[in-house]
Amino acid sequence: MTDRKAEPRDPRPLIGEPLSLDLLNTRWAGTPVNDLLGEPDGYRTWLSSAGLAGRCEAGEAGLAAVREAREALAAAVRDLDEHGAAGTAATAGLNAVLRHGRLRRELGPQGPAEHVEVDWPEWLAAWLAVDDFLGLLEQGAHRIKKCAHEACILHFFDTSQNGRRRWCSMAVCGNRAKAARHYEKVKA
Ligand SMILES: [Zn+2]
Taking burial as the number of CB atoms within 10 A of a residue's CB, which of 16, 26, 146, 181 is the most buried? Predict the structure, then answer.
């Protein structure tokens, strides 16, 4: 797994989700929608926040690649939510990113090792994010969730024992929903 360190310049409301969902969470609610990947500096911040700064260069080509990966991931997560599986278009989008790289296994001096190889270096972050998504699908697609608050567009991987996590953050969206319910009751 990637080595995550707190990135003080990261303005996002939710960080620390698995890499694929962390990439989706570079967009968050606002008018207009906030987008950390709206410009190269934000991309640099995301790489640092995701623990990839040492492995990926923060250039325009890499930014275009992760934006493409994010589109494919967003489509796949939407399909999962609505139909329980990624549709044809989303699957093609994810596979198009995956075709830029592969895992190479070898026996090294410290034992078995795995290396990611990509055709062009700018595809590394995008490839890692989509590869991470495949790992989440293997662990349980039903645990990939969108925050239940209707105005929130954040995603998380539900690792709670009973699988009942509903909010990106109880402190923010959970309480907003509770307050809204209370208001409805008082009004009624
Ligand atoms: Zn939320």
Answer: 26
